[in-house]
Structure formats: structure tokens, C-alpha cells
Amino acid sequence: xxxxxxxxxxxxxxxxxxxxxxxxxxxxxxxxxxxxxxxxxxxxxxxxxxxxxxxxxxxxxxxxxxxxxxxxxxxxxxxxxxxxxxxxxxxxxxxxxxxxxxxxxxxxxxxxxxxxxxxxxxxxxxxxxxxxxxxxxxxxxxxxx
Amino acid sequence: xxxxxxxxxxxxxxxxxxxxxxxxxxxxxxxxxxxxxxxxxxxxxxxxxxxxxxxxxxxxxxxxxxxxxxxxxxxxxxxxxxxxxxxxxxxxxxxxxxxxxxxxxxxxxxxxxxxxxxxxxxxxxxxxxxxxxxxxxxxxxxxxxxxxxxxxxxx
Lengths: 145, 155
What we know:
The complex is a heterodimer. Chain A is an alpha+beta fold. Chain A has helices at residues 4-19, 23-27, 48-60, 93-98, and strands spanning 30-37, 45-46, 64-67, 71-72, 78-88, 112-123, 129-135, 141-144. In chain A, strand 4 and strand 5 form a beta hairpin. Helix content of chain B is 34%, strand content 29%. Chain B has one domain: Roll (Nuclear Transport Factor 2, Chain: A). The interface between A and B is medium-sized, with 29 and 31 residues. Chain B: Residues 13-109 form the SnoaL-like domain.
């Protein structure tokens, strides 16, 4: 059980390290037996190596997250936050477009993706994140400019 | 599987019907085997009869919900929406919540989770309390809400 304020600090610190492209720092917030799903409904993945690769792609895209107000469950483990984010269309955008999640822009190298999602984390022993889920669908993605 | 616009409408429709105070109209959105967790961490309510009592109680407490921007998922089943929920009776409490609902193939809500903690709850309109004073004020007011359950509204 982790108190509410500590869980809220954890999820905001996650955004801070994401914005700093600090992949090692992000991984340090996670337990060894991590599972994650981004987006929810696309299939659950496991392990730190997969998570590292995932964060490296987001960092390479210059992701910028603006977190809203976090809320915590009364189960001692969950914390959630609504996020508005942007990132470069490259390198992740073409993968989104291939899946039909997004229409490819005319100038991929100069475009940014706009993104609304809700982050949900489940934290466990030692205050480490055991599970990350990101809620977003096609209608939560756009191309800026 | 519902399209994303339908999923998002469902979340907003729930808030609209709650605000209208029509218990049966709210219940129409849910399946008979609904699992309803409010707050997540308390034992879930299972089935429509248990949910009816909870919704009726919320409406007796003069609940008002202001949903923010809903987001969905890639499986056509789930939607998450940050929402400000205020109850005005027996005392004013404001909850900052994130609701997550899951729809079945029948287009009805089968699972609903309201995530909110003691630190997401504000008492009245006065100055923001902190620490133990805040914790005590919130838990005392939640206890008042529970005590008022089933008794006529004092308003």
C-alpha cells in the first residue's frame, strides 16, 4: 500500500522524466516484472526491455506531456492522470498510420502528433510501478498545424 | 464493439442522466450483471438492484457531474473520463474523479470504476484544508453521507 500523495508524486515524476527524455530515470520507477499496454486494447506487453524500447521511441519523438490533476484509487495501488501530449510524427507516426489510427501528414518530418490520453498506473512494493496502461483511441490523436 | 464516438457519448450521457436525477434512465445504461466500483478500493456493487440503491442515494445527495474530455481505447470497449462530481447534501463535497467504463457487445456498461481518493475530495467552499485536518473533514463528511442514506433528504 502506498499513500495517495506518494502515488500522485510518482505519476507526475513519470511525466517529468518523460519530458526530460530520461529513459533510465523512467525505468528506475518500474518493478522488474512490469506489464504495460499502450494503447489499451492493443495488447499487453511485459518486461523492462520492451518498456525501454517503447520509451526510447517516445523520447526520440521529443514527446512533451502536460499532465492534468492526478487522482488515486482507495485500493492503495492505483493512480491516474489525464495527459495532453505532443510528439514529432517521426518515428512513431508511420506505424500509427499503417494501423489506420492516423492519416499520414503531407510533410512527415515537420509534423507533430497531438495526443490526449489517460495514464493509469498500479504501484506495488517499494513504490515501484508494476503496470502501466494508456487509454487512447483513434479519435484522441491528431496532427498539429 | 462500439465506435469511439459512441463510447464517448456513453460517458457523457451517464453524467447527463445523473444530473437530471432520473434513476431509471441512469440504470438503462447498465447491464444486469454490472460490476460498479465507487470508489475503487471499496467492495464492488454487483447487479442492478445494488446499483439502483447507490444511484438513488447519489441523487438524494443532489449529485452534479461535470465531465471533462473523454478518451477511449483501441478495443472499442473502454472509455476514461476525468470528472468533477459535487454533492450538495447533507454537506457540499467535491470529488475529482477519473471514471473508467467498459461496454459489452450489447452496448451496455458491464464494468464501471470511479477512481478517487481522500486527497481528491474537497469539503465545502472554505479555505483548502491540508494534512490531518483535511483527512478528518473528508471522512466525517463521507460518514454523514452514509448516515443520510435511505433517510429523507434534509434539504
